[in-house]
Design goal:
283 residues; alpha+beta; seven-stranded mixed β-sheet; three-stranded antiparallel β-sheet; disordered N terminus
Length: 283
Amino acid sequence: MDTRRSEQAGGANHVGKAQVGSLAPGRVVGDGRYRLLAQFGVDERGDAHLWRARDGQLKRDVALTLLVGDPADPEAARLARRTLERATHASKFGHGGVARVLDVLALGSGITSSEGLLGVVVAEWTKGSDLVDLVAQRPVAPAAAARMVQALAEAVEQAHQNGLVLGLDHPQRLRLTPSGALKLAFPGPLPEATLRDDVKALGAVLYLLLTGRWALPGGPPAIQPAPLSPQGRIVPPRQLVPTVPADLSSLAVRTIEDGGNGGIRTSAAIRRVLDQVAEEEER
């Protein structure tokens, strides 16, 4: 895959909705430090706009999660503060599957009310391509999909051991590195996100890689939602792509759906199944 082409295309193809206010390439935010370069998505559930920007002080590219909202709205401000608190805690977490948080800006501390922002999470820039681009043409081979989610599950497991919620339940927050690994490129979990949401996200990412569909609420318009059966259940990947192994298909659905004795509720359980799949593929 042409990484440079994918990085350039990301800003044009996956904005997700109309730009808010003056959020446009060339604008400078964060006390005049960060110049917006290209938008890579919008997590509409929290009005989080995902941008690539240029750090004018350190002369390097960074990933910005811009929390857009009205500073005069007390509830919006409260929710933004919760996201910023979680991002601040995540800055102490180090793992190759998660972009390092470099700075967290809040109202009165790095941004002003006139900017139309409630907060900014600054993270290192992840080179590579959009996850949306990866599945746009065709689903990923099952063995490759298993390996990608396997590494991401390791990051989730370590984060949860440290009491951290990563907030990777939106595909535009993830990027594919040049080495072929998935990475949480835009940290900043939603205010109400839970450990369980991270685990369900792993199942949703696996489902996306296998089918090109997103199986959780709030996905980007660029990705079709997963189909549902007449009973309201998620249609297993194997029914959409017959080449998907039965165990991987079952793993995705059992991880996403709540309830029942067959559900998978921890990243460690996901890793065990994926390890088995990897061993079978090697044999």
